[in-house]
Amino acid sequence: MPVDFTAIDFETANSHPSSACAVGMVRVRDGKVVDRASWLIAPPAAHGEFLPFNIKIHGITPAMVAEARGWAEQLEELREFIGDDVVVAHNASFDMGVIKSACAETVTPTPRLKYLCSVQVSRRTYDIPSHRLPLAAAAAGFAEFAHHEALADAEACAAIISDAAVRHEVTDVAALAKKVGLRLTPLKAIPLKL
Question: In this predicted structure, what is the pLDDT of residue 79?
């Protein structure tokens, strides 16, 4: 089985995980990027405030998402892009938290998927002083990208996983996880409050 997966990255309007304002995804087949998708997302009204700190990081403003679809309206397109792939993200707990929280906030079904964190893979692959995305991506041979632009970050994450698979001499993401002492984690919905 070849190294096939989808890498994903979200940007948020504020510190609430449901406040997704952008997503970037890349589909990888046999270790190579074969498709890309990205779009802006209108955060939910209850968590729609754009904090100056977040705007400074990613450059997305309220005006830029004024005509964007909300989470519920774009979720099916996101699911279709991912398909049956394992999802990878750099600091996956953040990105998977966005999916879970945005689905809970909009009362939409949480996608059934398995994921792997490229930070954890980086820690078990590269001897570098920090495993932040720019340094880990550089170690994988993917340097000079627009950090905090969702699509660029997803591509950088994909480069880490593809390079790690080569270095660890494995042919799929599940084998990579096993080789470095990790496991693919199922995404679980946030329990509904009764």
Answer: 97
